[in-house]
């Protein structure tokens, strides 16, 4: 894969709505851009933890063991469902800055099916030394896309005069529920 093709494919996936991006937007909306910046570190760390072993040695194993890949997707679906429930039951007013935590973004990213696509399809496979430059480029795009999602969330709160709109957590919870159902259906072979 050429560098421009890699950049285009990665950016398309990183900018596509999903569980991690939903959490980043909610984090930006509930705590503002600056206070939510550590969430980008959580996202980058989560992707690295998943992608590095996939690109260096686990890809062939998962290709030969589709049941293991399905189990990973099902675990992802359960995690996203738990996050949807937490967002749905968030207080309706005065939402604390901790509505979205570093741990939640990290775990969601580790379990995010996009990480599997990055690690199994987009990042070239090989030794750690071979993969490292691609991971560096990937991280630059994660930071850029993460800033877009945090900014989008922060812009929502700015428009509402620094009051977190209760409907936003319900909409985010609904989106997370759809992501969870899609993951579960995919892991069980229903979709």
From TrEMBL:
Signal peptide: none annotated. The keyword Nucleotidyltransferase does not apply. Keywords: Cell membrane, Membrane, Transmembrane, Transmembrane helix. It is a multi-pass membrane protein. It is found in: Cell membrane. Its main location: membrane. The chain crosses the membrane at residues 67-88, 100-122, 134-158, 170-190. InterPro entries: LeuE-type (IPR001123). It comes from the Bacteria. This is Threonine/homoserine/homoserine lactone efflux protein. It comes from Rhizobium herbae.
